[in-house]
Amino acid sequence: MSLFKRNLILLYFLSLSGVVLAQDAPFRFKMGLGLATYYGDLKEKAKLIDQSSLALNLGMTYEFTEQLMGRADISIMKLKADDRFNTRKDFINRNLNFRTNLWEFNLGLEYDFLNINSGEYFLSPYMHLGLGIFHSNPWTYSRTGEKVYLRNYGTEGQGLPSYPERKKYGLLHVQIPIGAGIKLAVSEDINLYFDVTLRKLFTDYLDDVGNTYPDKAIVLAESPTGATTIGLTYRGDEISASPYPGVNIKRGGYAKDMYYTVGLGLSFRLNSLTLGTGSGRSVRNWGTSSFNRSRLRSPRNVY
C-alpha cells in the first residue's frame, strides 16, 4: 500500500474520532479538496496554479468567540516540478525534476472579519496563521527508469569528506502556514469556504536543489554511487551534448522553496449531530443573538 493511500486511511479514521470527541463543545469538523503547487529552484515564476496536484485537508476548529477560533489541520498532497516547463535556457539545460508525497500537521488561529453567527451576515472574509510540521522526501526517475529518492545520493556533495559543511537535509521540517479565504453560511451549522494558504519554509531542499554543483571528480572518487549521483546531479546531457558544469556553478539557490494550496471546503458543527437515539445538541448560546436564515434572501446584509 502506498504512503499516499495510507495517509488517506489515517485521515478518515481521525475524522471519525473527531465526531466522537466533540459532542460537548463548540467544535466544527471541516474537509477540503484543492490543488497544491510548489515554487522554488525548479521554477522561474511563481504561479497560483502551475504543475499542480491534488491536495486533501481534514481539520477541526474550536470557537473561542463568535469570530476567533483555534484550528488543527492535517493535509496530504503531492508536489512536483520539471525544468522542461521553464523558459530560461540554463534551467532547461539543467533538465532536473522532482516529485514528493507530502503530509503536514498545523495548529493555528483563524479570525472571521464579520460575525456570521450573529444572523446579520451570511458570508465573511477570514484569515489564519499557525505553526506546523511537514514530511517530504523528493524523488525522481533515474536514467534507467528506476524510482530513486534523491536525498540518498547527496546530489550536491552532502555527506562527502570533501564537503563537510554540506550535511544531508532532514525529511521532517517546520513551516508557518499563512492563509485567507471567504466563508459562506449555508445553514446554522454548515459553512462553505474558499481558502488559499501559503507555507513559509525553513529548508531550501524541498526539491533537492539549493547549492552549487559539486566537483565531478570528487563525487566519482568519494561517493559509493558516484556515477549514478552525477547522473542525478546534472541531466542536461540527456537532451543535448552539454557537459557537466564546472565547480562552483550555481545549481540552485535562485529562489527559496515554498508551497501553497488553493481549495474549496465544507465545515459543520459536530455539536448538532445526533448519535444513537439521543437528540442533537446545539452550539453554546453566544449572548442573545439568533441565527436568522432570512439573511440568505437579503444580499444587502452581506456587509
Rg measurement, Å: 24 Å
User: What does the overall shape look like?
Assistant: elongated
Ranges where pLDDT stays below 50 over 5 or more residues in a row are: 12-24, 274-303
CATH top level label of the domain at 1-79 and 100-136 and 171-207 and 256-271: Mainly Beta
Please give the order of strands in the largest beta sheet: 1-2-3-4-5-8-9-10
What name does the CATH topology of the domain at 1-79 and 100-136 and 171-207 and 256-271 carry?
Answer: Porin
Strand segment tally: 10
Order of helices and strands: HEEEHEEEEEEHHE
Question: How would you describe what is shown here?
Answer:
- The chain is mainly beta.
- It has helices at 3-21, 89-94, 216-222, 226-233, and strands at residues 27-39, 53-63, 68-82, 97-112, 123-135, 139-141, 147-149, 172-185, 190-201, 258-269.
- It has a domain at 1-79 and 100-136 and 171-207 and 256-271: Porin.
- It is built from 4 helices and 10 strands, in the order αβββαββββββααβ.
- The protein has an 8-stranded antiparallel barrel with strand order 1-2-3-4-5-8-9-10. A two-stranded antiparallel ribbon has the order 6-7.
- Strand 6 and strand 7 (147-149) form a beta hairpin.
- Helix 3 packs antiparallel against helix 4.
